[in-house]
Amino acid sequence: MAGQTDQLIKPGSGHGLLDVYGDRFLLKLLVRKEIKVRYRGSVLGLLWSYVKPLVQFLIYFVALGIFLNLQRGTPNYAIYLFSGIVLVNFFTESLSNATRSIVDNRDLIRKIYLPRELFPVATVWVSAAHFLPQLVVLVGACLVVGWAPTLLQLAAVVLIFLMVAVLGTGLGLLFGAMNVYFRDSENIVDMIVMVVTWASPVLYLWTMVAKVMGDWFWIYQLNPMTVAVEVFHWAFWEPTLKADQLVNDATPPGMLTLWLPIAMLITLAVLFVGQLTFRRLAVHFAQEL
User: Fold this and answer.
1) What is the pTM of this model?
2) What is the DSSP letter of 215?
3) Fewer CB in a 10 Å sphere around the end CB: N or C, the chain?
4) Mean pLDDT for all residues in the chain
């Protein structure tokens, strides 16, 4: 009996995100469940992964590219625009769904114990499943206009994907835990989602911001999503330009050597704070739900 007692684990305790890796099978089941529930009764199903960003792209392209004539000063503006949209959509979908993940799975959480981190992480995986088809469309469009990336640019794409996934997970853990206690968290996240598209150079060039902010431009660069979008433009949009279309200010100075490492450090800090907050609040999730 003494030996069995020593092996008992205090309810609610665990190793955080490390437990998610240990319960990979449960994570796989949750991802399948999320996808099935989301498209239950839907005619198009996963095809919505193509339709939604396509409609969003067309609206922005017509409003900004044609009506405001931004495409005139930006070669291959359609590639520039879409490469930013698909990345920001991945982040916003991950954050929004992760924020609601604990509350949406309240029935399961109240019945059994399993690592609570599984729910936000599963939603990020679902968002990744939506991101990949959009990425395929982006690559196809880039190839049509002569995309010729280097190995470094392809590696940067993978790195940025992982960074944005970690950022979405960290913020999702933070706001997902807070949302159990304060439902206003969903409204805060909705505002973040609304702002992030405009707070990153998705629809416009970073040089426009630099001209306005001047010496304070570094504040704009502290946003990890700003750096992520700039790297995506460097990897997808810039290799589609001809030699006479390239300009010296296509990418911000020090993007890879300075701002990308800073963005990664900020992302890891967000993940640490999100995991710490989540673990402290997760103990009483079942009671609060």
Assistant:
1) 0.89
2) G
3) N
4) 85
